[in-house]
Every structure is written in C-alpha cells, then in structure tokens.
Specification:
It is a single chain. The protein is α/β, with parallel strands linked by helices and 328 residues long. It has helices at 14-23, 59-67, 85-90, 103-117, 120-128, 154-163, 190-196, 216-221, 239-247, 278-284, 300-319; strands spanning 2-5, 28-31, 49-52, 72-75, 94-96, 146-150, 169-173, 186-187, 199-202, 226-230, 251-256, 289-291. The protein contains eleven helices and twelve strands. The strands form two sheets. A seven-stranded parallel sheet has the order 8-7-6-9-10-11-12, with helices on both faces. Strands 2-1-3-4-5 form a five-stranded parallel sheet. Strand 3 (49-52), helix 2 (59-67) and strand 4 (72-75) form a beta-alpha-beta unit. Helix 4 packs across helix 6 (154-163). The longest helix is centred in the last third of the chain and has 20 residues, at 300-319. The chain starts with a strand and ends in a 9-residue tail after the last helix.
Length: 328
Amino acid sequence: MKLFLYCFREYDEKPYYDALAAATPGFSYGYSPLYPSVENAELCRGYDAVSTTVTPFDRPLLTALRSAGIRALLARSIGVDHIDLEAARELGMHVAHVSYPPESVADYAIMLMLMSLRRMRQTLERAAVQDYTLRGKIGRDLCESTVGLIGTGKIGAAAARHLSAFGCRILAFDPHEDPSLSGIVTYTDLDTLLAESDIVSLHIPATAQTHHLICADTLRRMKKGSILVNTARGALVDTEALIAALEEGRLSGAALDVMEHEAGLYYQNRVGEPLCNPLMDRLRAQPSVILTPHTAFYTERVVRSMAEQVVACLCDLDAGRSNPLILF
C-alpha cells in the first residue's frame, strides 16, 4: 500500500504520516509540495493511490494519473466537487474523502459572525494606522440576533449547538431535519429563514442543485442589513450578485472563508504577483467584507484526523473492506 501525497505540507502533515507509516504494516508514502498536474503525474508512478487537498481533478489529469498506475484518489477534504467523478468511474479509479471533526469549521463560522457583527476588520485596520476613534465601529450583539443556518449536517449541527450558548434565536433550513436539535433550532422554509435572519450561514455541500444558491433572487429575499457567512464552498454564492447586494447596501456585510475561483490562490504564496482576480478586488474594496483563505478546517485535531482517515481508506481498499468514506 503505497500512497503519494500532492500539496503536502512538511510543517504540519509529515509527523502524522510518519507515525502512521511506523504503525501500519505495509503502508509507505511519498510526497511533493506541488499541485497535481498532467505534467507532474509521473511523480506518483509506482504508487497505488494519490491524495491531495482541494484542487481541480479533471478528466485529463485523472487519465494521466491512471496511466501512471494510480488506482485510487483519496481526497483530504470533505467535499469532492473538485473531482470529475464520472471520469474517475470510467477510468476505474476509486474515490474517497474524509469526514473530520465538525467543531473546527463550526467555531470558525461563529468567529466570523462575531467579527462581522463587531466590525472587526474596520477596527483592526484603523487601529493599525493609529485611528482609535469610535465613529463607524459600533457593533451589534449576537444574543439579539437571529442566525439562519442553511444545512444542519455535522458542521451545521455543531454550529447550532455552540450558538445556543450565546442566547440567539436560531432558524434552520434542511430537507432532513436533525431530531437532536429539537429545542435548539426552529426548522423553517428557506424564504422565512432569509427574511428573518440577521446572519445567514452556509453549511451545505456544493452540488449541481446548490450551485449559486445565494444569487440575486435569494439575496433580494434576505433581511435588509443582514450578513452572509460562508465556510462551506465558494460555488454556493454568485459573487457578482453578492457584490451588487453589498454595494447597494442591501447586506451590511459578508464573511467568506471560501469564494468562487479560489483555485490557484488559496494555499499558495502569491506575494508580489498580480492576481488578476477582479471579483476578489471588488470584495476587498468593501470595508464590511472579511476574506480568509479557506482555513476554517485548519486545526491540529483536523489535520491529524484527515491523515488517519486517508490511511484507513487506503488500508480498507487494499483489504476489500467497506468504509463509508469510500464513495466507489
């Protein structure tokens, strides 16, 4: 069982994979910090599977990996919307993902809510230039807000439980209601959630059905002065429509850990380079927008859990055992 990891980070992932290699009979691994491409697919020749963080895996890349002898793709992420699953099936490649502890993203989303309500970006930026005045910094209390959670899977449910300690009203929209959240959230339809929530937080996967769920139409239905928080997937939000809503003053802010077209930007050092990303430029120009580079997941606990699950999936594939994280 030989695993090759692209986008590998020696500074945090390596200790966990070293420990797993020492403790798991027959398991070994190689790695590269490079993002996978058709040009560097030969790096993984001689290995059984590859693993990577979120980066596009289209048909040409999957074909190149299969030609190099790769039989499985093990994503170091919950979502697999970056993988051409149809092509992987046709090429006879297994695909698996991870399901890390949900509290990291849930707590990060709450942090972004608090930062947005308290205008933290303006406060920090103005303090950095020694502007310590109060004008324009007045915030709102979370306990007096209504938070609308779109999606109550593991992360959304964790966010609901943690938010309950703040004393805020919590609305939720999900076709599959979680009975464990009874007494914590009030399930409602999407229109009611959008109309009554001071904060709308996204906790759903990116699929063909959820693409641009937040668009010009849904943004018009949101409560005036509300805040959008997205720690899920960039494709859920029509960025052009969001910018228009911010520029027109319909929304009072947005906090985005993910955004459309982030591939090639997030997780890379682009200091001194032109980014040529006009949507990001327009978002940055809004003082009420907080952008963070897809780091909501990033805790020691989650990195360790992802390594353990990737290796477990590889071992289960090798042994022919079932594993709910193996999609096919």
